[in-house]
Amino acid sequence: MIVTFEELQAFLAEQFPQGARYGTLEKLGDGWAEMKLDVDDEHLRPGGTVAGPAMMGLADVALYAALLGKIGLVPLAVTSNLNINFLRKPVAHSPIRARAKMLRIGRASGVGEVFVYSDGLGEPVAHATITYSIPAKR
Asked: What is its EC number (predicted)?
């Protein structure tokens, strides 16, 4: 890990402040990160379930954190593909948590997976695979 938890928190607050809408970074390790989103009415869709975009945003930012923790603070590392499978209905008004892990990091891209959990359920509510484009070093 070449970026500390505190360095990444400061970077996200300065360079990506809107990311806070998608959750809070809780843990950071060597190629992995965990985030939490406190679900409120803003994150619910009709039928009383957590909206897909809320889970996708949480997964995306969590894997971004895992990638940056491994490669350094690279602002222009961007999502190039995101695939998500919604597995079961999350508990409404209960936090959701993302556990993100990088699977492969190359010179030009990184691939990882994220499991999203809902507090109160033991099994994941979603699973995402995400690819990031990493800009060339100058």
From this structure: 3.1.2.-
Work out the number of other CB atoms within 10 angstroms of the CB of residue 61: 27
Helix locations, 50-128, DSSP H:
52-71
- pLDDT mean over 83-111: 95
* CB 90, CB 39: distance < 8 Å: yes
Query: Which strand ranges, in their side-by-side order, compose the sheet holding 126-133?
Result: 24-29, 32-37, 96-105, 109-118, 126-133, 78-86
Mean pLDDT of the chain: 93
Alpha-helical regions (H) of 23-91: 52-71
**60 in helix, strand or coil?**
helix
Least Cα distance to 129 among 44, 36, 62 occurs for 62
Q: How deeply is 68 buried, as exposed, middle or buried, from its count of CB atoms within 10 A (0-12, 13-18, 19+)?
A: buried
- pTM (2 d.p.): 0.94
The domains found in the chain, sorted by start residue, are 5-133 (3.10.129.10)
* pLDDT higher at 57 or 2: 57
- Chain position carrying tokens 């039928």: 47
